[in-house]
Amino acid sequence: MTAEQAKPFVAPCHDLDIRAPFRWLKSGWQDFRAALGLSLAWGVFCWLISTLVTALAWKTGGAILLLSFFSGFVFVAPLLAFGMYSVSRQLCLGNKPGLLQTLRAARRPFTNSLVFALVLLVIFLLWARAGTMVHIFFPSTGEVKLEDLFLYLGVGSAVGAVFASICFMASVFSLPFIANRDVDVITAVVSSVNAVLRNRKTMFLWAVLVAFFTAVGFVTALVGFIVIIPLLGYATWHGYREALDVTGWDVLPQSQQGH
Predict the structure, then answer these.
(1) Are 74 and 164 in contact (CB under 8 A)?
(2) What is the rounded distance in angstroms from the CA atom of residue 227 to the CA atom of residue 134?
(3) pLDDT score at 5
């Protein structure tokens, strides 16, 4: 039996207590402060990208396209934080992370991260298609009744919640796994979903916290994302380390990475 065949299909996961998400945020904030310049630089980059996309959405499609962008942000945010995993990784080893080092580390799993991005794109397109179908519930008569409007909003929110949940379960631990270990996308995604389902209450709390910070980012006209995106990226890394046992997979070559 080869080493590849001996690898499990799913990474073993640990039981997480309800306070775990707050530990991740605390550790993430410590990483943010330890690599302040790099964290702010990445945060500003993400803010500029978000601002540019927002401006283009408003200019080309108005409020409807802008709302679609805000709703679809959940599919893009995990990829925006991808570079932060290398920073936390180096800090865990006692090293001082640098920009070039971080970019090189983020480039190594490029193929797998690209495949995962395509998976998120497919989910997003399905969500967008489902969103257009929800419009059949929008009141079309001249007089809009309150109960009809509530039905439309309820169905739309339910559909959005389903796709957001799928995206969350698939990405929350898989991206740090891909960034750190020699693992295929399917194994990483299945391991992430399994860990979420095994720790429903804890991961629901983490999802609520992520949604809260995302809302803060939008309320602050995206400026808050300068801090929020790196913070959540670092926190996610610490969550991955606590949730999954990935010792069965090799560390990516030419990197000094810890579990």
Answers:
(1) yes
(2) 34
(3) 56
Residue 257 has pLDDT above 50, yes or no: no
Task: In whole angstroms, give the CA distance from residue 240 to residue 114.
Answer: 20
The answer for 221, left when phi > 0, alpha when psi is -120 to 50, beta otherwise, is: left
Selection from 38, 33, 174 nearest residue 102 by Cα: 38
| CB-facing half-sphere around the CA of 233: CA atoms within 13 A | 30
* Per-residue pLDDT at 143 exceeds 80: no
Distance CA 208, CA 206 (A): 5
> What stretches of the chain show up as alpha helix (H) in DSSP?
3-6, 20-34, 36-80, 84-92, 99-107, 110-134, 146-171, 174-180, 185-198, 200-219, 225-243
Q: Which residue has the higher pLDDT, 28 or 8?
A: 28
**Do the beta carbons of residue 12 and residue 194 sit within 8 Å?**
no
